[in-house]
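yo

u said u wanted the structure for the complex thing, so here. seqs first:
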Amino acid sequence: MKNASLGTINTQYFKFSELVLESGKKISPVQVAYETYGTLNDNKTNAILITHAFSGDAHVAGVKEGENKPGWWDIMIGPGKAFDTDKYFVICSNVIGGCGGTTGPSSIDPKTSRPYGLNFPMITIADMVNVQKHLIDFLGIDKLLCVSGGSMGGMQVLQWVNSFPEKIISAIPIATAMKHSPQQIAFDEVGRQAIMADPDWNKGDYYDKTQPERGLSVARMIGHITYMSDKSMEEKFSRKLKEDKAPFSFSADFEVEGYLRHRGDSFVKRFDANSYLYITKAMDHFDLSDGKLIPKDKKVDTRFLVIGFESDWLYPAYQLREIIQCLKIKGIDATYCHIKSHYGHDAFLLEKEEQTKLIKPFLNRVYNAG
Amino acid sequence: MKNASLGTINTQYFKFSELVLESGKKISPVQVAYETYGTLNDNKTNAILITHAFSGDAHVAGVKEGENKPGWWDIMIGPGKAFDTDKYFVICSNVIGGCGGTTGPSSIDPKTSRPYGLNFPMITIADMVNVQKHLIDFLGIDKLLCVSGGSMGGMQVLQWVNSFPEKIISAIPIATAMKHSPQQIAFDEVGRQAIMADPDWNKGDYYDKTQPERGLSVARMIGHITYMSDKSMEEKFSRKLKEDKAPFSFSADFEVEGYLRHRGDSFVKRFDANSYLYITKAMDHFDLSDGKLIPKDKKVDTRFLVIGFESDWLYPAYQLREIIQCLKIKGIDATYCHIKSHYGHDAFLLEKEEQTKLIKPFLNRVYNAG
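structre next:
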């Protein structure tokens, strides 16, 4: 599994004194966890920002010291890969509100010297992008060659275009939407309700006690159903019964049940329940529809490659086509590519070859034109 | 709302001494809650059994004494309606394992004089049908003109054909499947996990304490998302924010959130959490696929009208077409009708006109031929 070619990866940390949120509230100080891969060229024209999905973090590629598991998009980032680290300087940071090293509800509130919990202010996708802008400035990068990400990562890509179009040469939003539909909000809401129904949640004040593991695990299970397709579940599990047990009881009879429980259980070890609440709320309130995507007062030269997947019913193709329509109306250079896949929403994390085929020449074109 | 034409409806109760389950275990005694509408004719050829869905009960039509809300399929059953009570004698009973008056986990176990809880044996769809057969025998009915139901009700219809084909002249399974896919099992499993994660569940022993309301409410919310379509949610809620609150917090911002919470909260008042576990397990283990639907040693003359709905993604059209294929291979008189509807799985409870148009002449034909 070790991706020796990227060497050993270390998460780095950058701090700045104060972030003014979209709501007007302030967070200070702010720490940002980030990783970089490849080398920034002398004129700083080869930087690519990767934005992560809901449960992702800064560790997008390579293997960290003492670990075995490669980063969450390692199939796409590395020497010779779609985001070729022999050529480009790739950056990924954990979002504000997260729990992967960037300031979030589990961080210490300097006012109380205790974890923020629900005292952490509500955050938005625009706030996430503003934090990334601080990081880019800190790294001395004036323009990004590309911003790319799937799912909530795609929302950040769209928000970058909206907030700082002059700063990004190209954008690759994948399996995402300009706004959540009521069904998407509903799935998020049930996850939040599952967490808040757990007595261990204790109104978000659990950091010196027990994390609301049962509620968070149920929330994650719901998520996993929406990340897969009917067909990919059929291929993976069929109706197979678990081998190690007598059938027909309330323990997990079917393999699919065991899988979901396992995914729920492993999630609670790495993710903070309050971050689940804050980040899903940020997604649900994100809305760049109705012409809001492209700001009226700014010239947008950003080139777009928009990617969606056949069996993704969480972010269905019509939502990606709406993005394209919005861009085309403004005369922006944009293409939609629809990839055939059975993997459902997870496809953006799994379909290496098809995505590489599309992304590599696209990046090559924008890099050579730049 | 009052459906005066059916008069005041009373739930009736029938008891028998012992039910031998598919598993070989026994339940004794068994009480069955049922209701009837219309009049059984002298030669008892006009009886129709309606089988209910997961959370349904015996109260399918009309209004009970002292209540205002009509039964769950009142749009379809009554004088002049699809199941015309001026012509037919309609029966509906609560399933074994349920909590609507038929013996289930909340009933008193005569061995302990306490509610069964998890001492209630696992039950199957075939067990539900066997209980209905006891009821039909008790009512002195030799043959049913028709068995009809949607969702889990449709599974019971299919099980009737499998268990007692000689007893049913026609069958109308609606929005159902011969077996649950892994995705359907997964949604049920997350609901069960939400209930079992609630400390109030207490391994099913909560009847003298508090019902696991929070877990059961979350389970119901998940269900409601799967009963609606992306489009029906869009039409009903759009992204409207609730009027009575300041936006952007962890209380319900969006109307869809308020709706789900309300549906969850009202469900816990009328449904037993252990029944949720037992009945969903019965659905998940139901499997009449791979030619099992039609028993090899029996002649099946039953005529089928199979109905599915365009936007039903919980029981998609391909599952209904699989039923038809299975019937046609055996040379059975069967038709599939696919109704255009935005209502998702809920369509079978809402689409009065389209279903009536199909069911009324179908019943007329089988009644006149009989």
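Chain A has ten helices and 16 strands. Chain A touches chain B through 56 residues (CB under 8 Å).
cya
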